[in-house]
Amino acid sequence: MTTCDRQTGFTLIEVIVVLAVMGLLLGTAVPLAGAVVQADKRQEARSELANIGQALDSYYYQHGAFPASLRATDFYGVHLQPGVADTGVVDAFGGNQDYLYATAANPDVATVHSRGEDGIDSGVLNEEHVIRVYGAVAGARRTRLLLRMAAEVLANHIESGGSTSGSWPTVRAACGLGNEYDADGFGTTLQWVDTTLELSSAGPDRSFGTADDIKL
Questions:
Q1: Which of 79, 102, 113, 163 is deepest in the core (most CB within 10 A)?
Q2: Judgement on whether residues 78 and 22 belong to the same structural domain of the protein
Q3: Average pLDDT, stretch 149-165?
Q4: What share of the chain is helix, strand, coil (3-state, %, to 5)?
Q5: How far apart are the first and last CA of the chain?
Q6: Does residue 42 lie in a domain region?
Q7: Could you report the per-residue pLDDT of 50-61, keeping only the tens digit for each?
Q8: Could you tell me which of 44, 40, 53, 51 has the C-alpha nearest to residue 131?
């Protein structure tokens, strides 16, 4: 008695169907993978720009001005940490180029932006990932702190009969304050009026007698 062995395998139609399904899956998966990569880069750009913004605010608070560049030696690695593989300022969409940084229009306003998903710089006004850091905020914060601390020392100095005559650097030295108290948060020497015992900052415009003066 003989038996016929049933042949196993795929028919041509089955192979074509499988290939068609795989093609559909690949056609769906590739765009999705690309979208995930772009989403990751957008998140990376937002996170890095936020870190840069905080570091610029910190730098201005200390120096009364913004750094010359994002890689300035007194900024990068001091106020802004390099990040993984030293990429703290590298544009997520820039092909190993740094984020674009500028203070040219106004030395007290810093802008930093990414080139965006097309990798081409379309200008700060046309890009999606942009931060602006206003030095006036950090400068005023530091100025008020300096004035408050100076007020406490001055009060003790006056109460003990110390001299209040002369310019602020003279009175400041007589009070025992260091020269870090000479200037406000914008780099302008504080003004002291000995007749009224008034200490003031010229404010963001660096000009005394205007509306933005900050007084003790």
A1: 113
A2: yes
A3: 93
A4: 40, 15, 45
A5: 115
A6: yes
A7: 999 999 999 999
A8: 53
Q: Which residue has the higher pLDDT, 18 or 91?
A: 91
Q: Is the per-residue pLDDT at 183 higher than 60?
A: yes
DSSP symbols for 45-76: HHHHHHHHHHHHHHHHHHHSS--SSTT-TTTB
Judged on CB neighbours under 10 Å (0-12, 13-18, 19+), 189 is middle
Give the chain's domain count.
Answer: 2
Task: Tell whether 152 and 94 lie within a shared domain.
Answer: no
pLDDT at position 68 over 80: yes
By three-state DSSP, how is residue 10 classified? Answer: coil
Beta carbons within 10 angstroms of residue 94's beta carbon: 18
Q: Which domain holds residue 181?
A: 138-215
Q: What is the DSSP string of 189-208?
A: BPEEETTTTEEEE-TTTT-T
Compute how many other C-beta atoms are within 10 angstroms of the C-beta atom of residue 45.
23
| Vertex 166: Cα angle to 161 and 172 (nearest 5) | 65
